[in-house]
What does this fold into?
Amino acid sequence: MRRYLSHQFPNEIKTYASLLLASLASVIVITFFLQVSNEAQHIFKNLIATRPYLSFIITPLIFVGIIYIAKYYCHYVQGSGIPQLIAATDSRNKSIREQLLSFRIALGKICFIFLAMLSGAPIGIEGPSIHIGGSIFYGFNRFIKLKRKLLIHSLIAIGGSAGLIIAFNAPIAGVLFAYEEIGRKLKKQALVLIAVVSAIVYWFAIIYRGNAAYLTDLSLHSFDLTLIWQLIPLAIITGVLGGLFAKTTLYLINKFISHSKARVIVIAIFIGLIIAIFNYLSAGQIAGSGREEVLQILNNETLGLDFVAMKYFATLTSFASTIPGGVFMPSIAIGAGIGSEAAGFYTQIDTEVIVMMAMIAYLSAVIRAPLTSTFVILEMTVSLHLLIPGLIVAFIANFISKKIFTQPIYEALADNYLKLTAK
It folds into this structure.
């Protein structure tokens, strides 16, 4: 037993000290990142509320600046950051890992997301939190100098788990995401180390900022499992929409790739104008992560199909541009909107439950990680008692999405990073 544990865990005390420091640093840095990003999106929304026309100036200009600088000077901060973590764990090349994950990358991610939020981009900040967490933990490897591939890749997965835990206050989802998505090729034994350090991160986060639910407490809402068949159409619809989102995003990313600086600027202006139009039409409602809109929906406010459509296409356009930003919370917002509209067809199930199931199903269809999708929504709403129906709709939506596009979106994007960094 001792030999088994020594093989799966580091042997030196300085390694454990560095893991503790990395955990604490991640909590402080990511919490700061979340606060300044939220402040940036509030600044934009308040500005657009009184002067909506400014979106046509601010959004394209900032999009051009971010896309141009990220492409030619900070390429590895693009997108959500999750594909970078997957590529780093899949690669045996140390130089590739150091390009994708570092303290410098974490700082760049924070700065670019802040600017993107100021521009009204419909992006999430939780995926970038995962990238920042992975960068911080891997950055500490400069001091502890781990040699074994298992431990190095575990370190990256731990950082990703930490980022999700801190962003969503969802410890179970964090561990599952580290294993289900980031560390798909890690040995099962590595899950023990990931879980232990993730628990420490969660403990630090509670001490540092409290233990409030990321969304709201919906623990009083129940579900009769004999009605599970009624959720199948909802899971199929969200599965189709999520699968199309992933497939279209990857198609557009390939179409938008250009090595001409002039064409890059033109594409950035075009994308910025599309986002500006959606911001103008929605009065800034589609800007940012969508957390505020989800809270409104969970409070039984109807935002309408126009919100769902605009958030869907705005998020699709923004994500396809490779501007730094995540798709987690925007997908949850789209799912919430779908659930809110579908709730009118259900008379025997609480509206809040329908909305939660739609969020789970749509997120699962987009990111193709059904366990993570289920637990992250249920932990954000303190509703783990709805685990069984959540898992059922998640796996149905995941199955439908897989029929539309076989390869998960993050995995496909990670392959692109491996190809680019191998040149």
